[in-house]
Specification:
Length: about 230
Amino acid sequence: MHDVMRRGWTLDQGAPLAPQLYRILRQRIISADLTPGSRISEAEIAATYALSRQPVREAFIKLAEDGLLEVRPQRGTYVRKISTAAVKDVRFVREAIEADIVALLADNPDPALVRELESQLREQKEVAESEASRFIVLDERFHRTLAEAAGKAYAWKVIEQVKGQMDRVRYLSALQFPMRDLVAQHSDIVRSIARGDPGAASAAMRVHLRKILTDLPAVAAARPDFFDTGT
């Protein structure tokens, strides 16, 4: 419990608890704090966060819908292993949506947006050599900023709902491969937007999101215990 609290995975008692707990458990699964194949229980989580069973049950249901937890009747609830097929499917969806998003932004570049993105790139560079967890948070913000700037906040919510498996691989990849490569890809996207080149922006995003296809076999080979070999 104390380690969980030190990591900042705490609840605001003045806000709805189930959505907060869902986000915390989701992040713990993505960052492999809750490891694939491990068993977790409503009672244990309720005790850790000093909650009743109801918000825990609600969070578990949503995580199961996201494909991150598996409820096995009469056996318990387990963190799902990573499905490579699901990762590839989500990547396909993200590319289709986000390539169009950056093309829209490049079609009518906003200098204020470009400055914000360049500021984010500087933050990413500062942590790219040493802080995978922090980089993943900044990466998330970068992509969300692009979607919201294009007026596609709903599209980003759709992506968020399905990208949990992909995020798990991106986290493991960030531990295994240089994050500076991802920063360079982000920089290519921003430069293309700044110079008003929709085609280049779209192509840069496609290159960025396809990197996971080359990383995935090496990540799975390095952590075979994290992956479902049947998918």
